[in-house]
Amino acid sequence: MLRAEKISKEFIRETKGTNRFAAVQETDFEISDGQLAVITGRSGSGKTTFLNMLAGLLTPTDGKVFLDGTDIYSLSDRELSRLRNQKTGFIPQGQTAIHSLSVAENILLPYTLYGEYSEDAEKYAYELMEKLDIINLKDVRPSELSGGETRRMAIARALIKKPQIIFADEPTGDLDDENTRTVFEFMKSISENGASVIVVTHETDSEKYADRVFRMNSGILSEK
Amino acid sequence: MKLKKNLPLRNLLGRPVRTTVLVILTALLSVTFLCGTLVITSLRKGLGSLEARLGADIMVVPYEAATKSDLQNIVLQGNTGYFYMDNSRLEKIMKCDGIGQLSCQFFLASASSGCCSIPVQIIGFDPETDFTISPWIKKSGGGQLKDMDIVVGNDLNAFVGDTLKFYGVECHVAAKLDKTGTSFDTAVFTNENTIKKLIKSSVDLKMNSFTNIDPDKTVSCVLINAAEGYTPEEIINDINIHVKKVKAIQTKEMISGVSDSLSGVSDVTGILISAVWILGTVIFLLAFTMSVNERKKEFAILRVTGASRKKLASIVLQEAVITGITGSIIGIIIGLVIVIPFSSSIESALNLPFLIPDISRITEYAGISLIISSLTGAFAAGFSAFRISRIDTGLILRGDN
Ligand SMILES: Nc1ncnc2c1ncn2[C@@H]1O[C@H](COP(=O)(O)OP(=O)(O)O)[C@@H](O)[C@H]1O
Ligand SMILES: [Mg+2]
Question: What is this structure's pTM?
Fold first, then answer.
């Protein structure tokens, strides 16, 4: 279970009066295992900032984030990194790949980082590639992939360790309708298998997959 | 799908152009370092050995010799040439004030002999009075020379126990000298009796262009050390004024003159080496900063998937160290291939004694060059690695969206 307590983020920026600018205002948030939450909102409203804070990638200006009762920002960098590796999967906005590794190697990265390679991991990677329809690209370099294919690779990479919680930042931004549907159905099935899934998205359609729907408006989060 | 080779290596291989440029750059750095250091050390060593060996303050040669050939060539290269003067002049020289040690030498150019493709120069000395050659022979492991014994220079293809024939006279190789980096490496040394016999034989065989010399009444040059209380300058003046048809020259002064200019050269070389290194470091720094910036997204992915700051920094550092080591090994090989086989060309181009240091010294320099290059790479990369690993991943991620 993931819980955020009064988290907020301010950035240094020249605005009228002060040089501080609140990208996310003080917010409480909680998501249980097996839930799929969708966060929508206009561009620049603070969705990415909020998601990064939940995922342990951006230290909040104020407040705490608990994952299974652990205050994650009180951990050392080494511990927090390990926690991210073991319990979370993150699908970043934009194109993200390690250029020098093949698609399959990219997907297995969370395992290789800690030298945990296993036959089972490899088998699961094939299964994921199969489901996401990129199995025939397994030995290809990321530079040869289309935007949608890279995105699906990033999804497989986030899921490879069967994480307990998945963060996705506009995972369907550059996908066509059919692929978008596939991705959301996939996310849904993962949450049904017990993981928490938090998706930031522009897709209005997405609400029908969601257990909970949030809206971010100028740094203020509200649940529908 | 276990990762073949580790990630840093894969990253390097995945960017062949960038990696090649960095490897070439490092190679260049270690070539400059190694070549510069080796050349300077070899010159130092050559001069040092020459100085130690000459060991005489003053050299007196017949006037014709001094004008005909370049004096510097005689002193610094050991190219003694081939000349004689009458004993009467020797007696006059001995009468000058302030002479401490005095010893005569005899020169003869050989016809090509079995050992050597080129005519060798034969240098005879008087074991009774000699103070320059005997210590050197001793240092090279030789003992007292008997008649018909010879000591051969290091470059000659003759070994202890061989017999060489000069002008029909059989000589026995008693010792081989250490390398000097000068013409002495292709010379043969004998005692006074032996060389007199050789000179006589060369005249008898009509193979000597000096047809009317009597070896018992001539010498080629006189080496002198000043007695205590006298400066070499005083003695040289005395000889040059009072003894006709000879030229006295101050050998050590000539060497130390060259030593001085050599230390100037090595200062300049040092500055050049540092300049190249600073430039190289700056290029390195730029290259790594650029590449780390360009790869921000990749580093963010590594962090997102669970790499700690330390792990991230170590990946970047390993890339740099692998590049540094590969580059400097290539550089060291190129450096050695340039300096060692061409040392004699370098010697004749500079017209200075050139003595390559021994293997352990070369290894030491190569090692230093390896360490410095890898450290330079690590330093340059470490800077960007540190910077990137300090930033919150969330901030890196949005970097170039
Ligand atoms: N590192 C930063 N420095 C300054 N301002 C930032 C930084 N990151 C985000 N912001 C600002 O915070 C606001 C929210 O950004 P973001 O969370 O990326 O929005 P969204 O993901 O909803 O489009 C934006 O106005 C953005 O310009
Ligand atoms: Mg965003």
Answer: 0.73
- Tell me how far apart the alpha carbons of residues A54 and A90 are, in angstroms, rounded to a whole number: 11
Instruction: Find the B291 Cα to ligand 2 centroid distance in Å.
Output: 25
Residues lining ion ligand 2 (Cβ < 5 A) are: A 48
Task: Judge whether B244 is closer than 8 Å to chain A, CB to CB.
Answer: no
Residue nearest to atom 21 of ligand 1 (CA): A48
Calculate the dihedral angle through the C-alpha atoms of A153, A158, A161, A165, rounding to the nearest 10 degrees. -150
Is A2-223 assigned to CATH 3.10.20.30?
A: no
Ligand 1 atom closest to A43 (CA): 23
The answer on pLDDT for B118 being more than 50 is yes
pLDDT band per the 50, 70, 90 thresholds, residue B141: confident
Question: For residues A122 and B52, what is the distance between their CA atoms, to the nearest angstrom?
Answer: 72
| Ligand 1 neighbours (beta carbon < 6 A) | A 11, 13, 23, 41, 43-49; B 395, 398
Mean pLDDT of B49-55: 69
Residue spans of the domains in chain A: they are 2-223
Q: Please list, in sequence order, all residues whose beta carbon lies within 8 angstroms of the beta carbon of residue A111, skipping any fewer than 6 positions away.
A: A117, A118, A121, A160, A161
Q: Residue B90 and residue B244: Cα distance in Å, rounded? A: 11
